[in-house]
Amino acid sequence: MTQAMQVPQLALLERLVDSLRAMPEVRAVALRSALNTSQPDSYTPIDLFVVVRESNAEAQLKLGRAALQSIGRIQWVSLLSLLPPQLRALAEGPFRIDLTVVTPATLPAYDGWRILLDHDGLLRERARHSILGDAVRPEHVVELCDAFWWRIFESVGQLKRGQVWQAFHQLGVCRDNLVQIMRWRRDAERPFEGFYNLERYLTPEDQQALAQTLAAYDLRSIAAALLFAADAFDPAA
């Protein structure tokens, strides 16, 4: 079975990029979804950002809508953000398409996106200057440690006040911080991808420690999960 058959949204992506290429205002296009990885599947959304010449938000939004409608079979379009314009469309399949329109001034930071179109070399230049910044630096660890331990501190107060849902929320944030530390330990190539494909990189001990941070809707259960998270959170491991 070919990749196009396994991942049918690739044909949709090709049509969308062809439409964007035909628009003179469009200077560059980049893909930043999991379609850019070695393991996409039929559930993977399309996530593009499009770089256009300097223009107002209304013109950028109009261009984004026109690009989506040009590929046909669009069932719904939502506006997620006006500045910069970010659209989310549901295409027949169903497939999700996220399309963000930016200018050179609002170009996002390089995070591993794949360049599909780059008339002026802008994306290649941005990627080249950003690659050295992809490594985990000491200040990243310090910032995450601060965030984690303050969340633990706040959670204790909420548990004492019986604010179960708020404590439950704080536990989830602590788990996110723990996942980031684990990712940094185990995945040097893509250290900032959060939960994505996390199972491929964690050791059985990591998996068990992370599972112990899951809790029921119960003060004792949440307190125990917070203690497990605190035990597992070791930046030096």
UniProtKB/TrEMBL annotation:
Q: Entry's Gene3D superfamilies?
A: Beta Polymerase, domain 2 (3.30.460.10), Nucleotidyltransferases domain 2 (1.20.120.330)
Q: Which domain of life is it from?
A: Bacteria
What residue intervals traverse the membrane? none
Q: Which SUPFAM superfamilies match?
A: PAP/OAS1 substrate-binding domain
What name does the UniProt record give this protein?
Answer: Polymerase nucleotidyl transferase domain-containing protein
Q: Which organism is it from?
A: Kouleothrix aurantiaca
